[in-house]
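Final report, closing paragraph on structural work. Over the funding period we assembled a curated collection of sequence-structure pairs, and we close with a single example.
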Amino acid sequence: MLIACQQGGEPAAPGTAPEGFTGIGPEEVIRFGGTEPFWGGSIDGGRLTYTTPENIDGTVIGVDRFTGQGGLGFSGTLGGESFDMTITPGECSDGMSDRTYPYVAILQIGDGQRAGCAHTDSQPYVEDVPQ
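Its predicted structure, as stored:
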C-alpha cells in the first residue's frame, strides 16, 4: 500500500512551484519604481535600465535573474557597486498616486536600500478611482 503525504505549514506564495516562482515569465518586461529618492526603470531579459531624475535616459546594466520560492532576484553592478533587486508578490502603493501595483520591489545598491513597486504588461497596476 502506498500512502501519499504532503508537508503542512503556511500556504505557498502565489506563483510558486517546485522549480521556483513562476508568476513572472522570463520573457516579460518588468517595470519598477520608487520614491524618496525617485528611482525607476525596467528589466527586459538580462538587461536592466535604471533611471533617476538626474539620469532620465537611464543606465543599462547586465543582470542575472534568480528564481526563488517567493519571487525573483536580479543582480548586477552599477557604477562599481553591487546592484541587487528582489521582486515579490504583494499589493504595493508608491505613496504618491492612486495606483496599486501587484509586486513589491526592494533595491540594494551598495549599502543603500530603497523600496518601491513593480508591474508587468500582463500584470499591470490598478488605478484606484475615488468614489
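Confidence is low (pLDDT under 50) at residues 1-8. Residues 30-120 form one domain. We thank the funder for supporting this effort.
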